[in-house]
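Below is how a single chain appears once it has passed through the pipeline. First comes the sequence as given, then the structure the pipeline wrote out for it. We keep one example in the README because the format questions we get most often are answered faster by looking than by reading.
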Amino acid sequence: MIIISTRWHTDDLVGRLLENEPGRWKVVSFPAIALEDEEHRRQGEALSPERYSLEALVELRESLGEYTFKSLFQQNPTPEGGSLLRRYKWRYWQYAGMSLPPVTLVDDKDAVIEIAPEELPAAFDRHLQSWDLSFTGSATSDYVCGLDIRTAGPKRFITDAVHERLDFSETVRAVENFRRKHPSCSGTFIENTANGAASIDLLEQRLPGILGHLDPGEKVNPATTGIDRAQPWLRMTVGRQLVEVRLTLRRLCAWTGWAKPYGRLRN
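Resulting structure:
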């Protein structure tokens, strides 16, 4: 069986086949601009210069944007450094006393940069949790995502997370267990959609500080709102699982102001 396809998204047909049947398929990819030296061209050279010169491809990259260009022309729908959520803008934290090495990344200008992790503060100004729920816990449903977010001055630290497929009962238990795990949390935000309304009604009887709300960004692309002002956290992804991106940006922008969230750097 042969599949001839242009990549559009990490969750397109080819993406799903490679994820579900990783050992079955051999990928033969022809990026418009060579990513490395190949048999018939060198790194950085155009695939078919008589059709698309390197200059024309560079112009297309600028007009289409990094994500679209790397999907349609480079056959790689997930740019190494991220598209809307630039990986080199992420920040990381580590526990006090740890000496983890810096994260080495490449920025938009192909310059190599190193990002050293910061120590997690011993005390915080504010401590909240936030949840984005789904309708069911089936294998094809969206993930339920919960974040533990703490503020210290102008910085927001993402200190823990839940990211699972859960049904209604499991979701309620997860919210309760997350609060017990982090007893200093003073409030829990839950989006009043999907299972949110029923969960809020039940949890209000069991936990203090349950706050239901509607997503203020439903009519805009949540991954493009305030990216320059609210830098993303380590575990954020662009692709199939966008829930943590939406959740973090919405919460940070809605009730903590614009700042830089920090994610833990794991060794």
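The beta strands are 92-94, 103-106, 112-115, 118-119, 126-132, 144-152, 155-164, 187-191, 210-213, 260-264.

See the next section for the split statistics.
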